[in-house]
Amino acid sequence: MPRPGFNICLGPDSVLLKEHIEALLAAHSPGAAPESASFWEKHVFWADEPLEDRFWEKLTQQGLFDQPRAVILRQAQHKLLEQNGGLQKISAALGRGSEQIWPFLCFEVPYEKGKIKIPPAVQKLQCVSFAKKHGWYREIPPLDSRSLKKFVSKEAAALGLRLADADLETLSSCMPPDAGAIKLEMAKVALACPDRRLTEEALSMLEAAREMDIFAFLQGLQSGKNPGAVWGKFMQDQVSYDDAGLFAFLGMLQREARILWGLLAGEQVALPSFLVQSKTALARSLGFGKLARVWDFALAADKGVKTGEHSPKQAFEILIANLFQLFRK
């Protein structure tokens, strides 16, 4: 089968997009083996910054003895690319085609109500309709319960881990629906299993590493729901009223506040793609003032226990009372 002239990939999970591209490159390389994707010289560019001359050179120019190259444009939905007709210019360049150049446009867009959310400017592109007609267009949804289990199984096989069905169920239940996060967690599990058989110790480590859902807790407070119900649901099986429980809670709370502060300040925050939109919305609704107060309350609780002024349980109660009061304003 001849290779596509170009490919358009859409989805919220950058790791799944990358794996799709790697599979295509391998399928259209000598030997069609996974490692043969290296036959293609890969050049990756990002549309969240102005595209320089080098991008256009790699996309359009070829030499007599050049190695075949894949030109991959990430975040192609970015507003910067819509300015000055950038999307239309790329679309026109894709129409010229080349045996040595294989372009990939990656639109890393949200998944909402069971569908990929495609920006209107993208839907109108001539290259999009052409790619759909020729089968060069692919929408890649995020992991769901079924595909997540398959992804965990594939990662386990790649790492040489031997899993029973019950082990696979347990591991899958511990994983977030984000391919990059799953890869990191599975790598930790593999390191804890030198004989490549899953152990109770490795499973316990994974369970212990699961973060308290501070974000859901803050969301619940901000939504104005019954505070007792929010705290009761959060406390269930997550934290204990002792020193360890308090300090773990404070660490997670301050980490979450730093993430929300960074998003509010427009910084690039390392987060799974499925969390960026909801966390940004919460950060904006809180504002810098309330986020700063969260730190004040956390530090006061820490000081109260370390100076002996309060027991861990008292510090917890004061902290939560302060947070409830703050979020009611």
CATH topology of the largest domain: Rossmann fold
CATH superfamily of the largest domain: P-loop containing nucleotide triphosphate hydrolases
Under the CATH scheme, which architecture of the largest domain would be assigned?
3-Layer(aba) Sandwich
Gap from first CA to last CA: 63 Å
Oligomeric state as shown: single chain
Strands of the biggest beta sheet: in what spatial order?
2-3-4-1-7
Mean pLDDT: 81
Please tally the helical runs, counting DSSP H or I stretches of 4 or more residues: 15
Q: Please tell me what the overall shape is.
A: globular
The largest β sheet comes out as: 5 strands, parallel
* Structural domain tally: 3
* Text of the CATH class of the largest domain: Alpha Beta
